[in-house]
What we know:
Elements (H helix, E strand, L loop, with lengths): L4 H15 L3 E9 L2 E7 L8 E7 L6 E5 L11 H10 L3 E6 L6 E9 L5 E9 L6 E5 L5 E4 L35 H7 L7 H8 L5 H10 L13 H19 L6 E5 L2 E6 L12 E5 L3 H21 L1 H27 L3 H14 L9 E5 L6 E5 L6 H45 L3 H13 L5 H7 L19 E4 L5 E4 L3 H11 L5 E5 L7 E3 L8 H13 L8 E8 L20 E6 L6 E2 L2
Antiparallel strand pairs: 1-2, 2-3, 3-4, 5-6, 6-7, 7-8, 8-9, 10-11, 10-12, 13-14, 15-16, 15-21, 16-18, 17-18, 17-19, 19-20
Helix pairs in contact: 4-5, 8-10, 9-10
Amino acid sequence: xxxxxxxxxxxxxDLKKELLGGRIYKIAQTEKDELLITVRRAVENGGGQRxxxxxxxxxxxxxxxxxxxxxxPMVAPNFCMLLRKHIQNGKIINVxxxxxxxxxxxxxxxxxxxxxxxxxxxxxxxxGKYSNIIFVDxxxxxxxxxxxxxxxxxxxxxxxxxxxxxxxxxxxxxDPLEASRDDFLSVVPTKGQAVFKxxxxxxxxxxxxxxxxxxxxxxxxxDKSAIALDADELNRLWNAFGGMVNSIKAGDFSPELVxxxxxxxxxxxxxxxxxxxxxxxxxxxxxxxxxxxxDFYSEKNTITRIRQKSSDLRKLxxxxxxxxxxxxxxxxxxxxDTEKKDKYRVYGELLTVYGYSAExxxxxxxxxxxxxxKDVTIPLDNTLTIAQNAKKYFDRYTKLKRTAEALNSQMQxxxxxxxxxxxxxxxxDIARQEEDLTDIRRELVEGGYIKGSAADRIxxxxxxxxxxxxxxxxxxxFHYISSDGFHIYVGKxxxxxxxxxxxxxxxxDWWFHAKGIPGSHVVLITEGKEVPDRTFEEAxxxxxxxxxxxxxxxxxxxxxxxxxxxKPGGAKPGFVVYYTNYSMVISTDxxxxxxxx
Length: 597
């Protein structure tokens, strides 16, 4: 997924179609790096209003048309006031893109204070962390920008009022719209890298995904070295490249959003045929690229926002997990040191039986071990009697035995803590809403990982308030319907896992979990019906997908009747035991399953 030059070309085509000849009605700066411009469309374009959203946010620069409004600050920032002064009520007379650069140039015609006709240009540069919105006059002199870039920040180009505007040079890259066959053949085969990397490294506006698509259309392995391409392969690559360029020149765009496992994966302004034959992928076509961007980034924004809000929890869990794993490693090494305890016990017993045969002042004695029938040499302290030497070995044995018993108990507790923390980390990975995080925070408080005033704040326990620790969660488990119409539920966190397994499910329902790794409890509701094999496999796939093994091709899943799942007294949330089960190895692909909102 990339906001590449081809996507920009698609947007420019749509902007021309929708906004050319329209008048700028309102200008709002909704965030420090965002503009929302309302345009009254020309009658010949259908009239009415469209809004143009522009964001130069370093992490997610965007441009798209929308019908949605957004609240503006009470006091407009200076950049917004400047735009209102110059181009509000102005007419959009041109929208263009230099080459296939990620730049949109909007030319506006307006009357100045003296009533004279003037032209101004609003430029949107979509260049990752260097993205900017720049306002220039007819002479390409910068009037202002939403971000000021002084020479101390960039030695290549200053973006300050009064400076001349110029397009930053793309290093050693050709414009694909102007490139000839000779140009193509002079650069691509000379690159000592994968073919798809050679493509986007040689031409402006191409993203890695579009470059892979070109290779797919040419029937060439995208990872093959460009230097190793033969004449026939180069010819096919050029034809695929040229066909794509012709579509761009003709404005023949077909925006497409690709889903993998029902989640937005990639998008492009041209068909991504490389995904069309995949069973795990599906795609949706759009008439307008703006609608695609809204759909794609609305979900991405939600995920990003949740990850930002959960960053403190992730850090806390990671720190606690690292500390407990380190403790477990230390305890494991200490336990290895106690493995020789039985040797000391045998030494003591043998000295008790055969010690009388030791010579005076001897530093060792060799005796036959009646347990194994082999001779054993036992070191002796010649300053002690045989009885004292035997006692010394028995004391060592007793000390190491107590240490081993204590370590085994401590390691069991630490291992359970590590498993619990890993399950919480897995819950954070699948959290989609603020309510999902609330349960996880509560679990961390009750587990003692968050203490003191921080715990009170999380539990809503302030002065004169009672803890809401027992408050019911608003978060709901994932709900799927199998191909055969059976309802399947997936817990999002440990509290939900317990609720799902021991309150929602009946004893005759089926329970699924990834074997030996953290993951969600999955419950298949049978309603007393016989369950087809396909539904068992789909429920198992959900258990695989919502587990730590999600990125593996296949995961081993345990499944059994819910009545055989037990929760030990005092066990941590989500922890269960079972002693008899079935198992299957299943794919993590859940693309064929329907999630119920």
